[in-house]
């Protein structure tokens, strides 16, 4: 029998829907794989999962099988296909922690819209994946539940914040996963693990039930090992949601058709913009070489390479680390020890209990960002920091608009480096922040971006970032699928847990 | 902007209090140094000439979003209290909120 865990989601769906294999067999194969390679926080292994929902997964899969057995059409193109869900989306039947001690053991009383859509589509949710606490971090080391290990080299980070979701794909624990991208948390882990990760246009996927980091930047999106799989998942989770007032009331871009079209490998007439300010100094030589190779491939496919300039991108990181902490300091005020989550009963007043609980429940990166945001919003500093950062945000959007007038998509390396060793940057916040240099502008502008594997540098995966205008996902997927068709998939070495 | 004052340990302590974080002395020492480095880096936004540029709080232009004012199912009292650290008589039970002097 074919090794089910090595198949793509599209291949699995075909086998399940034609009843060549059952959804239960597929779910069981992935649960067995998780059992074999995931290990635990203390032991060896990938540690991609914080919670494995074996029983619920098999139950959900058996419902898909039963429905297919009586001749009912599959609920979606992904019915019966397993998925790993980032532990930042609420799930009524599983704990939801956002990687934080302050939510340890919390059982949400409602499903996120994204969770509900996955269930309605018949997708098998295998469990919840590890992440940097409240999605703040670029290595998954800031999880309160131990680091996730990169399947390519277990001594290295898988990126973050969605390191669990990316590592689960690379280790063949799941063919699909969900991430969230506030400054690169889908794309950077995808680059570090040799997988595909998409940050949709802001408002393209509902944030209802997504535990907020920075509300004006957060965006859930699909992760997979192939471009077509990401597109299939994108269409399942995307679309307007009346429960999220920032959700875009427009049809989901036709990304599946675009991915299929792109797979033909013809990009003639398409203009690909290289951003002059991205990919030079500070980028690892192997990353630059991989990027140059990708450009040559795109040219071979018929694309015209044009150089564009985005002069304000170099201020993106600075603007982001003012805007994000400001929103964080406000959003995380909800963890007040009164209504849900941890309570540390120290002190007689509510204020003392709140302060003791937040001290015990939050990790160092979350505290740093709350304090930084409180500072940036203080009277006296507001104009120079938060106000100025918002103006820079406008200029970055204008840079994008000018660039997209000259090119259909923009490209850059996804990250300045490949995956770094665990422990390398954990005590140096600014060095950690630099990981997101190339991904942050897209979040500030609310546009779309994705990372696809572009090869290896010194044995570690490198990602090619493709960026598109708001709601321009179709052209982005087309380019990604065309590029993907030119190279062999990256397959991580067998994990020895 | 380049002559920005260093953030002091006392300032970090004050911000932590405003943020309801009972940080330890060791954390104050650590955070003060780290935040100073981070602030030095983010202060670069001040180099951009942007006096006449409108601020963006939200990348996607949005008008007020309304929905019909009609009854919809919500959480039951039991569901809403299901994660509460303490509850009593169908309500959240909280520590003393007002000080004696108030």
List keywords for this structure.
heterodimer, A: 497 residues, alpha/beta, Amidase signature (AS) enzymes, eleven-stranded mixed sheet, 16 helices, 37% helix, globular, B: 102 residues, mainly alpha, Histone, subunit A, two-stranded antiparallel ribbon, 3 helices, flat
Write the layout of secondary structure elements.
The complex is a heterodimer of chains A (497) and B (102).
Chain A lengths: L8 H9 L5 H15 L11 E4 L1 H16 L12 E5 L26 H8 L3 E6 L33 H8 L5 E5 L6 H7 L2 E4 L20 E5 L2 H11 L17 H8 L8 E5 L9 H16 L3 E5 L7 H16 L18 H12 L2 H13 L6 H24 L2 E5 L15 H5 L6 H6 L2 E10 L2 E9 L4 H12 L13
Parallel strand pairs in A: 2-3, 2-4, 7-8, 7-9
Antiparallel strand pairs in A: 1-3, 4-6, 5-6, 5-10, 9-11, 10-11
Helix pairs in contact in A: 2-3, 5-6, 7-8, 8-16, 10-12, 10-13
Chain B lengths: L8 H10 L6 H18 L34 H4 L6 E2 L2 E2 L10
Antiparallel strand pairs in B: 1-2
Give an overview of the whole structure.
The complex is a heterodimer of chains A (497) and B (102). Chain A has 16 helices and eleven strands. With 497 residues, chain A is of the alpha/beta class. Chain A has a single domain (4-310, 401-484), classed as Amidase signature (AS) domain (Amidase signature (AS) enzymes, Alpha-Beta Complex), CATH 3.90.1300. An eleven-stranded mixed beta sheet of chain A has the order 1-3-2-4-6-5-10-11-9-7-8, sandwiched between helices. In chain A, strand 2 (82-86), helix 4 and strand 3 form a beta-alpha-beta unit. In chain A, helix 2 runs antiparallel to helix 3 (54-69), helix 8 runs parallel beside helix 16 (473-484) and helix 10 crosses helix 12. The longest helix of chain A has 24 residues, at 383-406. In chain B, helix 1 (9-18) crosses helix 2 (25-42). Chain B has 102 residues and is mainly alpha-helical. Chain B has a domain at 1-48: Orthogonal Bundle (Histone, subunit A). The mean pLDDT of chain B is 89. Chain B is flat and about 55 Å long. Chain B has a two-stranded antiparallel ribbon. Chain B is 31% helix and 4% strand. At the A-B interface, helix 10, helix 11, helix 12, helix 13 and helix 14 of A face helix 1 and helix 2 of B.
